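Morning!

As promised:
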Amino acid sequence: MIRIEGLTKRFDGTAVLNAIDLEIAKGERVVVIGPSGTGKSTLLRCINFLDRPDAGRITVGDISVDATRAGRADILALRRATAFVFQNYGLFAHRTALENIMEALVTVQKRPRAEAEAQARRILKEIGLADKADSYPASLSGGQQQRVGIGRAMAIGAQLMLFDEPTSALDPEWVGEVLDLMRSVAAQRQTMLIVTHEMRFAREIADRVIFMEGGRIVEQGPPAQIFDAPQDPRLQRFLARVSA
Amino acid sequence: MLGLVPVILGYVPLTLAMASAAMVLALVLAVALAVERVFRVPVLDQLVLLFISFFRGTPLLVQLFLFYYGLPQVMSFLTAIDGVTAAIMGLTLHFAAYMAETIRAAIIGVDRSQWEAAQSIGMTQGQMMRRVILPQAARVAAPTLVNYFIDMIKGTSLAFTLGVTEMMGAAQKEAAGSFLYFEAFLVVAVIYWIMVEGLSQAQRALEIRLNKAYAR
Ligand SMILES: Nc1ncnc2c1ncn2[C@@H]1O[C@H](COP(=O)(O)OP(=O)(O)OP(=O)(O)O)[C@@H](O)[C@H]1O
Ligand SMILES: [Mg+2]
């Protein structure tokens, strides 16, 4: 179970997240949509403490961290219980695909090398890149890089996977393969919090869709309700714009 | 004149040993200084800045004289230090100050996505620096660091002024006995030149190796 309470973040005095409350059940797939600059990325980044929240409490399983008091150990514990998939992949440029996936297992989880490598190879097979084990990120296509990015997140065995617009940096030709991989992750009942502009994908994969604007959750519900019967005028306007 | 060559060549190991020892020590110190400059530990940061400013702001020769001839007068425990040790210390501190700035710039140049990816998988700051940031910074800093090593090799000739008999000292002695000044110092110059050329070759090989991951 994931619970976010009163999560608040200000940049230069301006509140980008306004006391966000959010609960995510185990295995639930939650998709966040909303206009540009409304704090969707900031929400994900604060959950992972890539941006430090100014206030609020984040609970992931039995780890519970109060933002105002969080120490180094709390932040590490939270990060180790979550995984982040970045828009621009964020693969370690000096490591091969295999090493990228192994890194957290060896360095953070201190698993024996052989065991970590065996698991990384299983994941490479799962993401369809077994033949690219020894390739460096620079020699992979955007779609392949993002699949390694997702593979790296899968390896961690995180209780919550965070995706920040995983297909936005991709050439259209690579979007499909990344969405396919996310579908197969979702099929394993992985708890996911996804920010995306791919509305069709959102409707298909989400158990719940959250519409954010101005650092607040304006409306949320099952995809059918959000997309077919939106209540709030801001959501209606947003959907009219993105479907146009 | 050819008799000079083996005599002076006999001092090449000393030159290389002084330069290598100073390089290893300077690298360790420079990485520590650079990492401190990136994270800016209060108080320590001011001390590091002062250190870098002093060792970059004064000539190496002056620093060597200050350590070897000056400091023992005020700190008597330093009188036991011989010329070779003093030269290695001086080269270490002097070049660490320069190398720290090179390494700091390389660290800061590592893309923000790399820092965030390392943090997101739960690495400690130490793990992030060791496993992700420093290896990538090394690639950028390596050519400049090799240049400093070359400067260091040439800088070991200053140990002569601390009474160490190295290549220069040996050449000086040989020349004084035979009056072959031009020949003796020419031999020294050529030996330095060959060593530096060898290093430049190694530098190119190193760059190719470090860039392996970035080839498309
Ligand atoms: N490091 C920062 N410093 C200052 N302001 C920031 C910073 N990061 C984000 N912001 C601001 O916070 C607001 C929310 O940004 P955020 O990136 O979370 O939006 P978003 O909903 O993800 O938008 P997009 O759909 O364009 O990705 C924006 O106004 C942005 O300019
Ligand atoms: Mg964003």
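DSSP finds nine helices and no strands in chain B.

Hope this helps with the figure draft.
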